[in-house]
Specification:
One of its GO terms (cellular component) is cytosol. Pfam families: GSH_synth_ATP, GSH_synthase. By secondary structure, the protein is of the alpha+beta class. The chain has helices at about 1-10, 15-20, 20-30, 70, 75-85, 90, 100-115, 135-145, 155-160, 195-205, 215-220, 220-230, 235, 240-250, 260-275, 295-305; strands at about 35-50, 55-60, 120-125, 150-155, 160-165, 170, 175-180, 210, 255, 280, 290, 310-315, 325, 335-350, 355-370, 380-385. The chain is globular, with a radius of gyration of 21 Å.
């Protein structure tokens, strides 16, 4: 349902047009030369305990470069081995299989096949120094099993050797590109020059299948997440499906606009009065951007009367269920501590007439409850697995 919701959101002019501002709308309004839509996303949740009830609450959805599917596939065997060594044979059988790269590669391969040229390649658009290259290589290797060639290029490479022919086919280094799989380009600092922006524009205007295309990219912003939670929006996307609406809405935490006007003013006042109840989220990806506690007051104090506040949304701070665990982190001593876990589900869809729409695996990350924010790459969290009872 998450795949369907965000595909329909990406395809709905009213949702995007009401959520985004002028520069984004300029890019969104570009003509599309490719009807194939490929989405590889990850929707992240935490367990919240309120009034004696436990439920999953959505943190965010990542529609751009949703990472760690490759390395997550290695973790079940790691934990099974550790449990067996510790003599916990029964517990080792309670760890479920997990293989996201197979499903992610399946969707990439389906889009490649629909493009219709066996000579064309899947291009991974990457950074110069890619710290999670092994995660990407696992997906690449799955594609190679199907005899699908891949190349790895940076924005600079596309700018220097990329071009469109008269039919809008994209060529990079003289190779036709069927699918552009963006693993870079979700943060402003990734665009180091105007040439990088021009390269993104050229790819967006090409016949190649983009993962994500600009509409899917924008549909994953925090602002669109907040708009999707407004009354009536889910009903618009799932008419005559009240049970689906109820199930999806149950995963939403409170989400509040900071648009200019009375409703946004109420949100500002609420956040300033009780900042510890909320998380202030900017329109940024990549982790480590959220704002908590007294810092919310400092940020909103500066922008509360200006349109700059519209660059944020406010979200209820989820009250997660802590567990005891032992974290293995580089350079840190082993110790049992109170921990919080976040569970993400990988979704993959290919759309002309929804040819594929699957949940292809999960990612579980656990960190010490003393940290408010931070992921695996920043050294705060570790890869984990759920243990079924």
């Amino acid at each position: 349902m998450t795949n369907k919701l965000h595909f329909r959101g990406h395809n709905d002019d009213n949702v995007l047009m009401s959520s985004l501002k002028y520069p984004s709308l300029m890019l969104y309004s570009l003509p599309s030369f490719q009807s194939i839509v490929l989405g590889l996303n990850r929707s992240d949740y935490m367990w919240e305990q309120k009034d004696g009830h436990t439920s999953l609450k959505q943190i965010e959805i990542n529609t751009f470069a949703a990472a760690a599917g490759g390395v997550a596939a290695r973790m079940p065997d790691v934990h099974r081995h550790i449990l067996k060594v510790a003599g916990q044979l029964e517990e080792s059988q309670r760890i479920i299989d997990n293989n996201p790269p197979v499903g992610l590669a399946k969707a990439l391969a389906k889009a490649w096949k629909l493009y219709g040229s066996r000579q064309a390649v899947v291009m991974f658009l990457v950074e110069e120094n890619q710290i999670n290259i092994l995660d990407q290589r696992i997906v690449e290797n799955e594609l190679l099993k199907g005899n699908i060639a891949t190349i790895r290029m940076r924005f600079e490479d596309v700018s220097a050797s990329g071009n469109l022919d008269k039919d809008k086919r994209l060529f990079v280094d003289c190779q036709e590109v069927a699918v552009v799989y963006f693993r870079n380009g979700y943060m402003p600092r990734h665009y180091k020059s105007e040439k990088a922006w021009d390269a993104r524009l050229m790819m967006e205007c090409s016949l190649a299948v983009k993962c994500p295309d600009i509409s899917t990219h924008l549909a994953g912003t925090k602002k669109v997440q907040q708009v999707l939670a407004k009354p009536g929006v889910l009903e618009h996307f799932f008419p005559d499906q009240p049970q689906v609406v109820e199930q999806v809405r149950a995963t939403f935490a409170g989400l509040y606009t900071l648009d200019m006007g009375a409703e946004g003013d109420e949100t500002v006042a609420m956040a300033l009065a009780t900042p510890d109840r909320f998380v202030l989220k900017p329109q940024r990806e990549g982790g480590g951007n959220n704002i908590y506690g007294q810092e919310i007051c400092e940020v909103l104090g500066k922008v509360k009367s200006s349109a700059e506040r519209m660059a944020y949304i406010l979200m209820d701070k989820i009250q997660p269920v802590p567990t005891r665990n032992c974290l293995l982190r580089r350079g840190k001593p082993l110790k049992i501590s109170s921990c919080l876990s976040e569970l993400g589900f990988f979704g993959a869809y290919v759309r002309q007439d929804m040819l594929m729409n699957d949940c292809v695996g999960y990612l579980m990350r656990t960190k010490s409850s003393e940290y408010l924010d931070g992921g695996v790459a920043s050294g705060y969290a570790v890869l984990d697995n759920p243990l079924l009872f």
